Amino acid sequence: MDVPRATAGLSLTYALELTMYLKFGTQMFSKLEQHFNSVERVVGYRKERAEPPHETAPDMDKALVAAAWPSKGAVAFEDVTLAYRPGLEPVLRGVSFSVAGGQKVGICGRTGSGKSTMFLALFRLVESQSGRILVDGQDISQIGLNRLRRSLGMIPQDAFLYSDTVRANVDPFGEADDAAVWRALEAVELKAVVSALSGGLDARVDEGGSNFSMGQRQLFCMARALLRGAPLLCMDEATASVDMETDDLIQRTVRTQFAHCTVLTIAHRLNTVMDSDKVIMMSGGKVEEAAAPAVLLERSDSSFKSLVMATGAKSFARLKKIASSASSDNLVGAAPSG
């Protein structure tokens, strides 16, 4: 079939333009897909359950103020089951344990065992499906989020600092005077660091605290918790990304400055929980065992013992000695005088 030259030339011209239109169409489709991500998020937010009330009911609030809640920091989980979303498998499955006020408790377990989720439940970042959590005898589901979260101390794994002044990072609510802020910084050995900055407490902190080392950021979080004076402190693998010297400083500060507080520590380095009053071993979203470290290390079938033994014979002997020494000290401290 013979095609006229003019027709063939015109066809080739349009064919060359076709690739341009295909490229343009592909670009427009990609942009449409990107923009629909925003629509998907809006639809997702509409389906999300609203957060519980931030403020406590007036009558309950008056009762909490009168009782100086929380004063001891006692914690109790009673058959708590929790899933991140309806329809998903529970992350916590009937978790029950109790911690007396002032106790130091280590939480251990493999990745995905539910350790960090317990803290999410305690701060009500995720609501439990069943069971209840008590702090000093009060069901936290009846307490407004503002009062609850302001009453608890937290040292997260990833230390977060605001793009603001040093003072605002240590005292975000502006409730303490300069002397109290300096005392908190001195307790965590940051006073010299801040004093050397131009402006002292008014020195600027870069976004995320990038002008401070990882260890210093952890210590700022420690100072923040110390200034709050909360009777219950939660440490979520706070020593996972700091050097040994800073780790020792954090542990020393916990023993001295938080001696009368309840401290829950998710263990990253086993030595941080060997002198605890109790270790809670998590597995598959359940409490597998809970007892003093020295007691668990004497049990042949203990998962905690297996975890410690996996560090090596020399390390096991050293950690067991720490646990035994701490157990003896606790017995002496608990013995009645006279």
Automatic annotation (TrEMBL):
Please name the GO terms that the record assigns under molecular function: ATP binding; ATP hydrolysis activity; ATPase-coupled transmembrane transporter activity
Which CDD domains is this protein grouped with?
A: ABCC_MRP_domain2
Where mainly located? membrane
Q: Does the keyword Lyase apply?
A: no
Which residue ranges does the record assign to the ABC transporter domain?
A: 75-309
* Entry membrane topology: Multi-pass membrane protein
Under InterPro entries, the record lists:
AAA+_ATPase, ABC_transporter-like_ATP-bd, ABC_transporter_C-like, P-loop_NTPase
Q: Which residue stretches, if any, does this entry annotate as coiled coil? A: none
Per UniProt, the keywords (alphabetical) are: ATP-binding, Membrane, Nucleotide-binding, Repeat, Transmembrane, Transmembrane helix, Transport
Output the Gene Ontology cellular-component terms. Answer: vacuolar membrane
Q: Where in the cell is it found?
A: Vacuole membrane
Keyword field contains Transmembrane helix: yes
User: Which family is annotated?
Assistant: Belongs to the ABC transporter superfamily. ABCC family. Conjugate transporter (TC 3.A.1.208) subfamily.
| Protein name according to UniProt | ABC transporter domain-containing protein
Q: Which organism is it from?
A: Prasinoderma singulare
